[in-house]
Design brief:
- Keywords: Membrane, Transmembrane, Transmembrane helix.
- It comes from Acidilutibacter cellobiosedens.
- This is DUF4489 domain-containing protein.
- InterPro entries: DUF4489 (IPR027972).
- This protein is mainly β.
- The chain has a single domain, classed as Jelly Rolls, CATH 2.60.120.
- It is built from no helices and eleven strands.
- Strands 3, 4, 5, 6, 7, 8, 9, 10 and 11 form a nine-stranded mixed sheet that branches. The protein has a two-stranded antiparallel ribbon with strand order 1-2.
- A hairpin with a 5-residue loop joins strand 7 and strand 8.
- It is elongated, with a radius of gyration of 22 Å.
Length: about 180
């Protein structure tokens, strides 16, 4: 079997080339007025229930993973990624005093260890009745890539309070995690 060496252009007028196992656009100078390559992926956030709100004076909060989503960046030279998260937070118990929900975004690309890239704190300083619902959404722009083929983003949440009287649980439902990547000029 003959193995093809280097890029092959089957259509001389095309700006695309392919290897037997991949298809990418030829590297070229960036021209911002041209349309850029984009890719998209999304994942539903599975229902995370009965997540405790921990008094951090007594113990350490335990993060709960809400969801993960991966994106293939193999054919990008300088990718820019927008990650969006939205969900509903509901409370299984009434909470009379202030607490904080901390959402963390982690990224893992290739064989590099996972790193935290973003933190979003939602402070609730007023009483919350049982069954109350709070919408949560945030977006992260990420452009820190170094020769990565595939990156996976993970979102976790934890509940904490400095007040001994605050204990309770919350649920995260009806959520979605999306990533959109484009070539950055």
């Amino acid at each position: 079997m003959n193995r093809i060496q280097g890029p092959v252009n089957k259509n001389p007028g095309s700006k695309f080339y392919f290897y037997p196992t991949e298809c990418c656009e030829e590297p070229k100078p960036c021209k911002c007025q041209e349309p850029h390559q984009t890719t998209f992926n999304c994942a539903n956030v599975s229902g995370a229930t009965s997540i405790p709100i921990i008094n951090i004076l007594d113990s350490t909060p335990v993060p709960k993973t809400l969801g993960t989503v991966s994106i293939d960046l193999e054919c990008f030279d300088k990718p820019k990624v927008k990650l969006s998260f939205s969900a509903l937070v509901s409370f299984g118990t009434a909470i009379a005093l202030g607490f904080t929900l901390t959402f963390r975004v982690f990224k893992r690309c290739g064989n590099v260890p996972e790193t935290e890239i973003y933190t979003f704190d939602l402070f609730q300083g007023v009483a919350v009745a049982i069954g109350s619902t709070i919408p949560v959404n945030f977006e992260v722009c990420d452009g820190d890539f170094c020769g990565s083929d595939c990156c996976t983003y993970r979102v976790s949440v934890e509940g904490s309070s400095l007040l001994a009287a605050v204990v309770g649980t919350f649920n995260v439902t009806n959520g979605v995690l999306t990533v959109l990547a484009t070539e950055h000029c």
